[in-house]
Amino acid sequence: MITVENWAEIRRLHRSENIPIKEISRLLGVARNTVRAALASDRPPKYERGSRGSLVDAVEIDVRKLLVQFPRMPATVIAERIGWEYLITTLKDRIRQIRPEYAGVDPADRITYLPGEIMQYDLWFPEPRIPVGHAQLLMLPVLVMTLGFSRFQSARMIPSRQAGDLLAGMWSVLSRLGAVPKTLIWDRESAIGGTGRVSVPAAGFAGTLGTRIQLAPARDPEFKGLVERNNGFLETSFLPGRSFTSPTDFNTQLDGWLLRANSRLIRSTGQRPVDALAGDRAAMGALPPVEPVMGLRTRVRLARDYYVRIDSVDYSVDPRAIGRFIDVHATESQVIMTCNGDPVGSHVRCWAKRVTITDPAHVAVAKTLRAGFAADKLARERASRHHADGHRVTLRALTDYDTLFGSDFTTTSSSTTTQKATS
What we know:
Elements: H1 4-15, H2 21-28, H3 32-40, H4 60-69, H5 75-82, H6 88-98, H7 100-103, E1 118-124, E2 130-131, E3 137-138, E4 142-147, E5 153-157, H8 163-177, E6 183-186, H9 190-193, H10 200-209, E7 212-215, H11 225-238, H12 247-261, H13 273-282, E8 296-301, E9 307-310, E10 313-316, E11 325-330, E12 334-339, E13 342-348, E14 356-357, H14 360-383, H15 398-404, H16 409-422
Parallel strand pairs: 1-6, 6-7, 10-14
Antiparallel strand pairs: 1-4, 2-3, 4-5, 8-11, 9-10, 11-12, 12-13
Helix pairs in contact: 2-3
């Protein structure tokens, strides 16, 4: 086979020097047909090794039969079905070549984002269990956010994945930014759009902010690929080598790490998120004049057991509100109870599960109320034993009533006993 150097020299001699083919053949010591082939080719010669066949050739028909019925069958399963006993990599390479003929091709478009256009949300569940008090270690959700244009990311650990806590976490992130994007992207998270439609609390939240929530198609994580990749980034770059003493400690360490993460250069944009954030924020809407409805809320009638339950935790309430309706509002840090707008209890939010939180002042009030109730009951009982003019009601023996009505049960009973003895 002619070399690239000979090919180039042949073409030079013939085109630049006008040397005939016969003379070129003599000068370079190559055959005349080789010279003719070099002049006819407009590309340098390339060595291509001849195919020697492959072990997969013998089983390719069986592989194709399986792919016809099951286009997405994994290569390892195919190897098991056809009894493949050789190196799996060889089979995987062939399957990778022919699978598109049966499974089709699903191209992914390159998406560009305008400033202030979207913000993607997702929940990340880090593996380390976080101490939350009461000898409990829990896996808690982390709300992760990524802006489309600047790639600026933020994250915060929240108490639960209930709607009120999710919306409170979203508000915390947006209030830090000081602006609202045009679209908030979520997957089918149960509290946001588990039914395929935006939930009522989430719709109310978006309406107050003057934005909209768009749900990703089912089973399509690529729809919000920016935040999905950041979940992996948190998993591999933030977690390793760290330990946490509480949710507050987790969020403190996370905030410090995010400062560095948002200062790194993003290859796809050529900018640092912290620098591009200004362009994102300038195109966003303003924060609403009033805060949206968020946090966990409930309304219950307070029972004799003067506790209310929220997120599986029981909190004590002022017992003087027993029998009346209590409004409970739980934020990330506090649980506040009111009755007709008047405060009847306040506690620090407990992130543990199935525990009881008691205010000693409520126990003292309950003790006083019980003592007063017992005294009033005794007074009522005593009052029922006296006439209206104050003198005591006379209690007569039951035998007096027997005599009054002519019923002498004592004599009758004795006669019956005598008759039984005689018989």
